[in-house]
Amino acid sequence: MEFCATWTCPGPDGPIHEHAAAFDRGRERRVLIVPALFEEQNRTRRLLVETMRRLDAAGLDSFLPDLPGCNESPQDFAHQSLHAWRRAMADATAQFAATQVLAVRGGALVFPAHLPGHVLEPVKGASLLRHLLRARVISGREAGEQLTIEGLLDQGREHGLILAGYRFNPAMIAGLEGALPAHEGQRTILLSELGGGAALWTRAEPGEDAAQAAALARIVAA
Length: 222
Known about the structure:
Blueprint: E1 3-11, E2 14-23, E3 30-34, H1 39-57, E4 61-65, H2 82-95, E5 100-104, E6 117-120, H3 125-142, H4 149-159, E7 161-163, E8 166-168, H5 170-178, E9 187-189, H6 210-221
Parallel strand pairs: 3-4, 3-5, 5-6, 6-9
Antiparallel strand pairs: 1-2, 2-4, 7-8
Helix pairs in contact: 1-6, 3-5, 4-5
């Protein structure tokens, strides 16, 4: 049965209790799922929880931790960085005794790369950032603002920037500009391997796809 687990990671004033969705029956194979980043995280959460249900039926435990500053996290997103998220996912790995990993999209920028496992459609940090900046330029123009990607980047590097409702600090902006997906032998899963259908992370609203979840679980459990 799915339930909410807790784990701890460093915070600005000491250890912070964070949340994770979990299917934990104390089994040998234990999958840490590192979610996509920013708005893609919300759009793919249903897919990942359904994948966890399928993994549970296949005999694997799984854990989907909140990234600090996201979802139910008590931390402030404005204080986060890719480095902080990497430390947090390392802590989650140890505390949940994960034996393998499934990283999704931008999750491949912060997952514990020493674990064997899979990455689903990994993406560069610069690509994620450009997508967010383009959306900000478009929304600004609709509001009568004359914005450019270069101008927003300059602002973000120096002062931080609000993108898609998230307050990015300069460290997050700088980290994304140079971040590449980690890869130390994990198998890359392409969307085409999940049996067709649209990429949920590109939709305007959160969605789900039972066929994709079933295919993803089969690959991870194989």
